[in-house]
Amino acid sequence: MPESLIPLFYPRPTAEVAGPPNLPTLNYTGLPVALSSVYPPPDPLPKPSLPSGQREPIWGDDDRIPYTLTTHIVPAAYFREDEDIVLPNTPSADGSMTKEERKVCIQSADLKLRELRRKYEDEGRRPQHKALWLCLNRYVRKHTKGGLTLFFAHANGFHKETWEPTIMSLLSSRESQSLVQEIWVWEACNHGDSALLNSGKLNTLIHTRTAARDLLNFLIYFLPSTPGLSPLPTHIPRVTQSEAQRRIRSGFLSPDSPRYPICAVGHSFGGAISTLTAMSHPSLFSSLFLVDPVITYPNPEFYYTPSSLALGALGRRESWKSREDARKGFLESDFFRAWDPRILDLYVEAALYQDQDTIRLKTSPIQEAIVFIDAGTGAPEAWVRLWRKELDSRIKLRWAMPGPGKPELDPRRNATRDRVWLRPENCSNVRIEGSGHLIAQERPALLGKEIAKFIEETLPESRARL
C-alpha cells in the first residue's frame, strides 16, 4: 500500500491480543506500587537551592499564551526499592582511553548492569530509605481559574524543558487555554536538575515502579490543594494530613475534591511510569496520553544479551569546552539534526550545566544506561498488566505512535498494533506522520495539537464525574 494511503491510526484487531509467555516472573501480583510504600521523608530536611534557577518559557511575554513558568522542588518518596551498589566504570571523559579500551569498558559496564538486574530479579530487592529530591516546572494560567491539570513525564535521557515546544503548541489556541489551568512537568530523580540535586546519592539501579512511586508521592502529598493563581514557594509544602488521607482514599474523584483528576502525558519511559502510576491509584487520573511508551511484549532473554541502547548511552560524550562546542557536535549527528530546532536549543540550554570550566550533561551516561537496562522489567510489567485489563476502563487512553515507515520499538509483525489495543475499552490511537520514536523532539507542534484534541474530549467527562 502506498504510504499516503496508510491510515494514521492502528485499527482494532479482529482477535484478542495474545497473552505473554507463561513464566513465573510475569505473574505480577497486587498493585504495581502499594500505596503503603508511598510517603515522603520525615521533616525537617535541609532545603537545597534550584540548580539552574528560574527561567522564562520560550514564549516569553507573548500575551497570546498567558501562562507563567516557575520551577519548584519536592522530596521524592522516602522508600526506595533498590540498595546502594558500586556502579560500573564508564569511559573517561578526558579521552585518555584508546578506542579499544573504551569499547571494552562500555561492554563491561553493560554486562555488569545486566548482571546486577538479573540478581535483583532472581534474589529480590533490598529496599532502603533515602531522602532524594525532584525538580518540576509549573506552567499556570495568569488570570481566570478553572480547567484541567496536566502532568508531563519525559523520555529517558531528556529533561523537563524538552516539552516546552509541545506545550506551546497545545496552548496556542483560546479553546485549549480555556481547558487547561496548569501543567506540571517533572524530571525523574536521576535526570536533569533532579540529578544535580541528588548528586552523590544515585548509586543504585532504578525500576519504573520507583519513578511511579515518586509520582504518587508528589500527587498525594505535594500537589497544591487548588490550582490557584497565587505564586508558590520554590520548595512546595506538604498538603494537610487530612487532604493527603482524602487523596489516598479517593484521589481527585470525590465530590469535595477541589481538583479535577489529572491528565498525564508520558513519552517513552515516562509513558510506562504514567501507566503504572495510574494502575496503582486510578482515582487520581482522568486520562493518559501515551507517546510511544516503553510498554513492550516480554523478552525473557533481555538480560542475557547486550543492550544496544545501554551501550549507546554508556559511550555517549558527556563533556565539552562550551555550550557552542556541544551544539556544534550535536549538529554533526543525524540523531540531533532530526529534532525541531527549538528542542535542540533547549537541550543546549537546559540539559547541560557548567561544572567549573567544563560543560557537562546533567543526566550522566551511566544513569541513562541504568534506565535502558530497566526496560527488561518495567516495560513488560506495564504490557502484562494492560493485557490483563488492570488499567481502570474509566481512564481515557490515547496512544500517539510513530508515523508509517518509521522504526518501531518492537519490530515483530503487528506488535505495535497489538500494543495500542492491549486495553481496548475507552481507547484510541494516532500515528504522528513523519516522526519516529522521539515524537516530542521531532514533531512537537503536531503532538501539541493532538494533545489539545484529546483534552477537549477529556474535560467534559472529568466535570461530569464531580
UniProtKB/TrEMBL annotation:
Gene3D superfamilies for this protein: alpha/beta hydrolase (3.40.50.1820)
Residue span, AB hydrolase-1 domain: 151-445
Record keywords: Hydrolase
Alphabetized InterPro entries for the sequence: AB_hydrolase_1 (IPR000073), AB_hydrolase_fold (IPR029058), Carboxylesterase_BioH (IPR050228)
GO terms of molecular function: hydrolase activity
Residue ranges of the TM segments: none
Domain of life of the source: Eukaryota
PANTHER family on file: HYDROLASE ALPHA/BETA FOLD FAMILY (PTHR43194), PEROXISOMAL MEMBRANE PROTEIN LPX1 (PTHR43194:SF2)
Protein name, entry field: Alpha/Beta hydrolase protein
